[in-house]
Amino acid sequence: MSERLAQIAGHLNYPQGLLSGQVAIITGAAQGIGAETARLFANEGAKVIISDIDASQAQNVASLIISNGGQALAVPGDLLDDSYIKTLVQKAAEFGNNKIHIIVNNAGFTWDAVIHKMTDKQWDTIISLHSTVPFKLIREAAPYFRVKDGEPRNIINISSTSGVHGNAGQANYALAKAGVVGLTKTIAKEWGPSFGVRANTIAFGHIETRLTANKEAGAFVEVNGEKVALGIPEKQKKAAGPLAYFDIPLRRPGTATEAASAVLAIASPLSSYITGQTIMVTGGRNM
């Protein structure tokens, strides 16, 4: 923890960490924002379940956390496979002594095209991964959230400024990310009154990840045998020149650690009276 956060946590009597004793599933946790979220959660005492389609990377993140004294379990698999979602929840509950406290729906990627050129495969894949998968995971984990044991329960769905404001070339992603905002509010209204479950959305702006790196770097994901290139073309970035971050008051992109810190802040007891909200983490863009 930072010195200031440590002072706050100490004042509120969380000597073992802000998330001590809690069990957290984090999807897309093998790299980027997800991996940083897992690391920060573990540093605050949580037992983290690393969910990602990249088995090797997922295990690397879990091993690093364990080597630093944290508790982590890699459960790799494809979230578009319903059987994997069942396995993920089952193994998380076993790891957590039949308890799950936090879900962070972070997994995803972009597969862009302008509306008149977007294929059904692009549309269906992105809608499924960013909207349907979070719903199915939450539904599967419902028995561990609809409980009255006095312990905190927390769901954080990751969205984007594209889901709040729309974005040219991202009709599929914008709709999916807007959808999780409605899902979040519904969870807050259904599970808050009787079970005290908090649910919030975090909408990120420009964060430095493989989705915003140069496309020429070669990062990709594979969808049913088809490689989907990730990133922004270098030519497009250069065209923006010195104005690239002009609409961001802080005049720079955010880091994965800054993004993950926002997730930790909302998951922690420091945000215990915040629910049903969409928190914008954008450096001030679109305010």
TrEMBL record:
GO molecular function, one term: 3-oxoacyl-[acyl-carrier-protein] reductase (NADPH) activity
Keywords tagged on the record: NADP, Oxidoreductase
Occurrences of domain Ketoreductase (ranges): 22-194
Catalytic activity as recorded in UniProt: a (3R)-hydroxyacyl-[ACP] + NADP(+) = a 3-oxoacyl-[ACP] + NADPH + H(+)
Enzyme class (EC, first level): oxidoreductase
UniProt cross-references to InterPro entries, sorted A to Z: KR_dom, NAD(P)-bd_dom_sf, SDR, SDR_fam
Enzyme Commission code: 1.1.1.100
Pfam families according to UniProt: adh_short, adh_short_C2
Superkingdom to which the source organism belongs: Eukaryota
Family recorded in the similarity comment: Belongs to the short-chain dehydrogenases/reductases (SDR) family.
Name of the protein in its database record: 3-oxoacyl-[acyl-carrier-protein] reductase
